[in-house]
Amino acid sequence: MAAQEEWRKQGDDDLGGQQRYAQSGLVLAADESRGGGYVTRALDQVRKRCQNMTQDRDTSDNVRMFESKEALGEYLGTDHAGDWGYLNTGSGWADAGKAMSWLYERVKATHRVDFVDAKVKQLETRDDRVVGARLSDDKVLEAEVVLVAAGAWTGELIDLRGRVEATGQAIGFVELTEQEAAIMAEQPSVLNLSTGLFVIPPRGRVLKVARHGFGYLNPRIVNSALPATTTARMEPIMVSRPSTRRDVGNVNRLPAEADADLRRGLRDLTPIGGLETRPWKETRVCWYSDTKDGNWLIDWHPEWKGLFVATGDSGHGFKFLPLLGDKIVDVMLGRGGDLGRKWIWRDSGEDGEGREVDGKFRGLRTLDQSRAGVPGMVLEEELKKTEGMDEPPVERSSLACCRSSSL
After folding, report:
1. Which of 25, 204, 212, 277 is geometrically suited to a Cys-Cys bond with 188, CB 3.0 to 4.6 A?
2. How far apart are CA 32 and CA 47, in angstroms?
3. Which range of residues forms the domain containing residue 213?
4. If you compute the radius of gyration of the chain from its CA atoms, what whole number of angstroms results?
5. Cα separation, 374 vs 354, whole angstroms
6. How confident is the model at residue 243, as a pLDDT?
């Protein structure tokens, strides 16, 4: 709630101003017919959340229940959005690209931060201390404290196997007519918990559809990740990390199953017929930094002195932009409280998740009750299944990858 209060401030000098935040409302839906443990827990979670919200006098007017498929469909103007759900009119979405550009300019204007545009090859150590970062040109940036907040790339710099893992999520954009854009601008964001599919109402004439699921793995050998302990040798390890052109060629291409699923989202979650047959304006694979429980990993490294790690967004990090930095500093200073205990360095476990076992990579599975789809899919393998098929038409553009986040 504290983060959302900041997003709602609409002054030009506020984070949420100049169309960086839109309070569109959010419909959270689910399919009763899918059954099973995962969906049942997800439905219970939604119901409990809704009950808690409706008992709060400040939010009761913001929540509207849809107890049936017909009621939900009538409100959204769709036939297949879900079997039931609820609308929270107090929710909205933030434009990540605009927000980060705004924040970058503000930080740069302080003249207290030097931005270095370079690739980090590895962390630099001296005895049991991390003392800096070695860049791809072998220049070393030294510091008393090294804070690594590299998102889905963190596992290439630090051995986090079994704790944090990169997973790829499918995203697509289609262009709308002016009339269609006007219709969608009046719609809330819609997320179906059972499928993970969601759409975010556009500003302008581009509509985003995406899938929040277990995601794709991209197992690769990395050679210079900082070992888990100070006594271990640096050696090649297999981790899932974001894909590159060297891995899969066109990094923006979607596997056939993701393409079909996103088109199903356009069909089921929007009131505009025929969007599912439209050429993509852009497709992307957006990379999460996942943990087992969906909580961040924000803590001092237990073995290496001088190293602080802030990662494990699990797909919901950006919406906390207004306050996450302050919380990270609190943890660094030893005053993280309950949140610090939740984000503490966790045991990697002995189940083999996040590691290569008998020649096969076993992905870490996030069990935060928000994920849908098939766990353990490998991006390269899914793309190979697509070879020989007619590639869906895509118009070339320069859209940012994860350009929005629901709140």
Report:
1. 25
2. 13
3. 2-25+91-406
4. 22
5. 16
6. 92
Residue 305: DSSP 8-state? B
How far, CA to CA in Å, does 363 sit from each of 67, 193, 242, 307?
36, 22, 14, 26
Q: CA–CA separation, 279 vs 392, rounded Å? A: 7
**Where would I find the H helices in 31-131?**
36-55, 69-76, 96-109
The reported pTM is 0.88
Joined together, the tokens standing for residue 328 give 């990270």
**Cα 51 from chain centre:** 27
The pLDDT of residue 358 is 84
Query: Residue 202: which residues within 8 A CB-CB, separation 6 or more?
Result: 176, 181, 184, 185, 208
**Whether 233 contacts 225, CB under 8 Å:** no
Contact 211, 169 (CB under 8 A): yes
* Three-class DSSP category at 311: strand
Any domain includes 183: yes
Residue at 346 is within a domain? yes
Instruction: Give the distance between the most distant pair of CA atoms in the chain.
Output: 65
Distance CA 239, CA 253 (A): 22
Please tell me the distance from the alpha carbon of residue 366 to that of residue 314, in angstroms, as a whole number: 8
Main-chain dihedrals φ then ψ at residue 316, nearest 5 degrees: -135, 30
Q: Tell me, yes or no, whether 359 lies in a domain.
A: yes
For 64-87, write each residue's pLDDT tens digit: 889 899 999 999 999 899 998 899
| Token pair belonging to 156 | 């290439």
Number of domains in the chain: 1
User: How big is the chain, counted in residues?
Assistant: 407
- Name the residue among 167, 298, 326, 188 with its Cα closest to residue 240: 167
Q: What is the pLDDT of residue 36?
A: 34
Of 188, 184, 179, 172, the residue nearest 264 (C-alpha)? 172
DSSP assignment letter at 394: B
Beta bridge partners of 219: 240
Q: Are 62 and 53 in contact (CB under 8 A)?
A: yes
Following DSSP, what letter does each residue of 269-287 receive, concatenated?
H-SSTTGGGSPBSEEEEEE
Q: Is 43 a member of any domain?
A: no
- The closest of 326, 146, 343 to 226, measured between CA atoms, is 146
